[in-house]
Design a protein that fits this description.
By secondary structure, the chain is α/β, with parallel strands linked by helices. The protein is built from 32 helices and 5 strands. It has 6 domains: about 150 residues, 3-Layer(aba) Sandwich (Rossmann fold); about 55 residues; about 110 residues, no CATH class; about 120 residues, no CATH class; about 110 residues; about 80 residues, Alpha Horseshoe (Serine Threonine Protein Phosphatase 5, Tetratricopeptide repeat).
Length: about 700
């Protein structure tokens, strides 16, 4: 056992003795342009960050280098000096030290580097790399590779995960990164954080900046946590030593109140006030001496009002505010408390008044959402893909969510052309020969829209209905003819249909037209130019109607099938390629329309829009609890794109803020920053969190 232990110790010692320790000093600015001075630290820091991931070598932390430089008060002009480098290396306990300089002229940057043996002072290698200043990662990689090769350690550019060699980072972005390091070194962590956030936002692929930003954020959190700890300890000591009989009683209380208010600890302030009350000190006690106008009860009540207002607990503000102005009408804080009280009363009244008409407002918003959704069917680009079965689904939505509307909802509906928006589905129903739906729309409109101008519109709609009924009877004969041709029509009869293919859409039987095109194409190969023309017309109709009535995939297969038959057509039709290109153009346009249809209608749940409208209504009426619940539903139930999701997260955070639920504000803000660190609302989120009560 002892022998094994000895062996392990020996191996460990051998490993340690072979491990290399390297210090990387700051790079000297040889350009003479002061705007690049910060790169001195930036280049060094990036090399340190990258190479610290390599096994078999220890890279001295930059902070140790910075501390040593401050202690020995070395100027930047000395960084590249060989004697100075050896001195630095020994002070840092390094075997080797890398020193260097950079030179920038126009679009070119050159990096010079020397690796020095600290014991001997000898130069292990001296290398130079140069290239475009806006392709900094390439130069960084070259230099890191040279250093790794010279000391025989494994290195690859993707080892650290901080960059890819083909990614572009401009020299200005590297300068910003470097300036952030300078700011951090002089204790300006918040300023460094802001500069890095700006840099990452401009180039999200700049991983070094992201890494440094996370590092600074963690540091700020630790500093804040330590500050919080010190504040709490000071408070605890102060609270434990408070003595009502002490002549400094008032000052002790003031110190606690001031600390809690300045650190936004309003819940703790309320808890502290309650602990003072438990001491059973007389409310009339003048806390700053007998000459002072301020009493203990007055100050406790004032700070309670202050805290309740900050926490948006308006019911409690009203209770405590009324008590204060009754007991302390001559207080110097009277006007402040009165302001809190008036604000709270106004907020409560607003919420109560809003509740009275809220149901109608929500019903109107629901109506608006469904009408806007269904009116997308008006677009021919969408309607062409809606078969009879799908239409029935849309018709059911219209019937239950729109036609069932009452007059109160219509009156509340914020829409300038209510009648037109409400009855747009009439045209859609007409497209599917749904006379029953058209009759229901006319009948409902008569009851809902009683204004004389609207009644004229109802009358006009009624006339449209009667005209359509007449026309439908007239078309029945033609439709029967199409049905007959589709079933057992001659080739000549099918050719006649194909000739006026698109004009026959008025009969709204695209299924029959598809059937006729399909049947015609199965009659055999064309043998004349005229037959080729007829066949290509039929192919055009077949492809387009397949895409509209079945699916795009089948339509694409049909088009590929057409292209495979080129030899059957080219011999008889010199314009074959041109006609195929025209068919292809029509089909690609149809594909784009289909994609739009899926996005705007087919795969869109109208209830999501309803909930969005509800949430906005709750917000406008200060019903923040309902708003929170609704926005959480939106986020949980629906797959939103990034723009929508980031907006809903931000609005959820704001609704928590309006409730005074600051813990959930922070949680939601944290989630937002994790998902969208450079999102549209990132700065607003930061501003709100920074000013939150702690």
């Amino acid at each position: 056992m002892k022998s094994k232990l000895f062996l392990i110790v020996c191996l460990l010692w051998a490993f340690i003795s072979q491990a290399k320790t390297i210090a990387i000093s700051y790079f000297d600015n040889s350009s003479g342009d002061a705007k690049y001075n910060a790169l001195s630290k930036g280049i060094s820091d990036m090399l340190i960050t990258d190479l610290s991931k390599v096994k078999g070598v220890t890279i001295v932390e930059r902070e140790k280098l910075e501390k040593l430089l401050q202690e020995i008060k070395l100027g930047q002009s000395k960084y590249f000096d060989q004697t100075t480098a050896v001195k630095l290396g020994k002070g840092l306990g390094a075997q080797n030290i890398l020193t260097g300089s950079f030179y920038i002229l126009d679009n070119i940057i050159r990096l010079d580097a020397r690796l020095i043996d600290v014991q001997t002072g000898g130069v292990i290698f001296a290398e130079q790399v140069s290239g475009n200043k806006n392709n900094f990662f390439s130069l960084h990689q070259q230099l890191a590779n040279l250093l790794a090769k010279s000391i025989n350690i494994p290195y690859s550019p993707d080892l650290s995960g901080l960059y890819k060699t083909n990614e572009q980072v401009s020299i200005n972005e590297v300068v910003n990164y470097s300036n952030a390091i300078e700011l951090q070194d002089v204790g300006m962590d918040l300023e460094a954080k802001l500069l890095l956030e700006k840099t990452v936002k401009s180039n999200p692929k700049f991983q070094f900046a992201k890494y440094k930003l996370d590092e600074i954020k963690d540091l700020i959190k630790k500093i804040e946590a330590e500050r919080e700890k010190l504040i709490l300890e000071e408070l605890k000591n102060t609270i434990n030593t408070i003595d009502a009989s002490n002549e400094k009683f008032g000052m002790q209380l003031t110190n606690v109140w001031t600390t809690l208010v300045s650190s936004y600890k309003f819940n703790q302030l309320l808890s502290f006030n309650n602990s003072i009350r438990k001491m059973k000190v007389d409310d009339k006690k003048k806390i700053y001496g007998e000459a002072s106008p301020y009493t203990l009860g007055e100050m406790l009540s004032f700070y309670d009002c202050y805290a309740f207002d900050a926490l948006k607990k308006y019911d409690l503000v009203i209770d405590e505010g009324k008590s204060f102005i009754t007991k302390y009408p001559t207080s110097m804080y009277f006007q402040s408390v009165k302001m809190y009280l008036e604000k709270a009363i106004k907020e409560i009244e607003w919420r109560e008044n809003a509740k009275k008409g809220l149901d109608n407002k929500l019903a109107a918003e629901s109506l608006d959402a469904y009408v806007n959704y269904l009116n997308n069917l008006e677009w021919k680009t969408n309607l062409q893909f809606v078969n009879t079965k799908e239409y029935q689904n849309y018709a059911q939505i219209y019937k239950t969510q729109v036609l069932n509307t009452n007059k109160e909802t219509i009156a509340t509906w914020d829409e300038s052309s209510k009648f037109n928006e409400f009855t747009n589905f009439f045209e859609i129903a007409q497209n599917y020969n749904d006379i029953k739906m058209m009759e229901d729309i006319v009948s409902t409109s008569k009851n809902l829209f009683t204004d004389p101008d609207d009644q004229e519109k109802v009358y006009s709609l009624e006339n449209k209905l009667e005209d359509f009924k007449t026309k439908t009877i007239e078309n029945e004969t033609k439709i029967k003819e199409l049905e007959s041709i589709a079933k057992k029509g001659s080739k000549h009869e099918m050719e006649n249909v194909i000739h006026w293919l698109f004009s026959n859409e008025q009969y709204n039987r695209p299924d029959l037209l598809l059937e006729i095109c399909d049947k015609y194409l199965k009659t055999g190969k064309p043998t004349t130019e005229k037959e080729v023309d007829e066949n290509l017309h039929a192919w055009d109709g077949f492809i387009m109607y397949t895409g509209k009535l079945k699916n795009i995939e089948d339509a694409n297969k049909a088009f590929e099938n057409l292209k495979s038959k080129a030899d059957d057509y080219k011999a008889f039709q010199k314009d074959y390629d041109k006609k195929v290109r025209e068919i292809n153009k029509d089909f690609r346009s149809l594909q784009n329309d289909y994609t739009s249809y899926l996005k705007n209608l087919k795969h869109k749940d109208p209830m999501c829009n309803v909930l969005e409208n509800y949430a906005s209504t709750y917000n406008e009426n200060h019903q923040y609890i309902d708003e929170v619940y609704t926005r959480k539903q939106i986020l949980e139930l629906y797959k939103l794109d990034d723009d929508k999701k980031s907006l809903q997260l931000f609005l959820l955070m704001m609704s928590y803020y309006n409730l005074g639920n600051f813990d959930n504000v922070r949680k939601t803000a944290t989630l937002y920053n994790e998902l969208y660190p450079t999102g549209s609302y990132a700065e607003s989120v930061k501003s709100i969190v920074d000013f939150l009560p702690k």
